[in-house]
Structures are given as C-alpha cells and as structure tokens.
Design a protein that fits this description.
- By secondary structure, the chain is of the alpha+beta class.
- It has one domain: Nucleoside Triphosphate Pyrophosphohydrolase, CATH 3.90.79.
- It has three helices and seven strands; from the N terminus they run E-E-E-E-H-E-E-E-H-H.
- The longest helix has 13 residues.
- It starts with 6 loop residues before the first strand and ends in a 9-residue tail after the last helix.
- Keywords: Hydrolase.
- InterPro entries: NUDIX_hydrolase-like_dom_sf (IPR015797), NUDIX_hydrolase_CS (IPR020084), NUDIX_hydrolase_dom (IPR000086).
- It is an enzyme of class 3 (hydrolase).
- One of its GO terms (molecular function) is hydrolase activity.
C-alpha cells in the first residue's frame, strides 16, 4: 500500500473587492495563481498564521476574517504533497502590494480566473465560493 502524501497545513485567504473580483497571487518562479496565505507554524492558530502571511506577502492586515472551513487539495508547487487548508474570507485594511515571495498579484473576475493556471485549491475550492454572500 503506498504511503500517504505528506500534508502541508496552511491558511488561505479568499479576498474580493467591491466589484466581486478575486485577488490571486503567483509566487516567484511558479506558474500557478492561488490565494495569499501560507504555512501554519506549530505555535500559531490558522487565523494568526494568515494575518502574519498577509502582512508579509501583501503588506496589509486583515480587518475581518470569516472562517469558511478546512479543505484538502493537492499542493500546487510541491509535487507529491497535499494541503489541508483553513480557508477564510478576508477583508484587508488597505490596498495589497506584492512583497516577499509574491511575484505577481491580480484582481480577476471568477470567470477570468478560470482562464489562468490555477492551484488546485483555488480551482476546486475557492472559485466555487467566490461571490457568495458573507454569512
């Protein structure tokens, strides 16, 4: 029986603007667009990890975090790994700017997002939830 794929534990942000566009990021030296966020350190809660990652990657902090659940997907940039992602709908406290390992960020409609190379989590979990009303 094959061994289970190693699992990365991450926190990820579903960020939309007032016109319903979704914020996607692409990390340096990769092709897949995905949510901002990253790995949860052993001492962090998912919300704390996401707050730290958003500040590092986008230069802003969450004004509001709404938990959307935990989801599993294949990792986009680490072959043979899976993800367990804590997904949050996020409202930022300012305009995001690409920083740290982020090479590019784009605001795209859910329809336009589907034309980009997307991480499995973004394609299969996030896009179906984009545009949904906040709880």
């Amino acid at each position: 029986m094959p061994a289970a794929a190693p699992t990365l534990h991450i926190a990820a942000a579903l960020i939309e603007d007032a016109s319903g566009r979704l914020l996607l990021v692409r990390k340096r030296d990769t092709t897949a667009f995905m949510q901002a966020g990253g790995k949860i350190e052993p001492h962090e809660s998912p919300a704390d990890a996401l707050s730290r990652e958003l500040f590092e990657e986008l230069g802003c902090r969450p004004r509001h975090l709404e938990p959307l659940g935990e989801f599993n997907a294949p990792a986009a940039n680490e072959p043979g790994h899976g993800l367990r992602a804590h997904l949050f709908r996020v409202e930022l406290d300012g305009p995001p700017q690409a920083a740290a390992e982020i090479a590019e960020l784009r605001w795209v409609s859910p329809v336009d997002a589907a034309t980009l190379p997307l991480a499995p989590l973004t394609r299969d979990i996030v896009l179906p939830r984009a545009g949904a009303p906040a709880a």
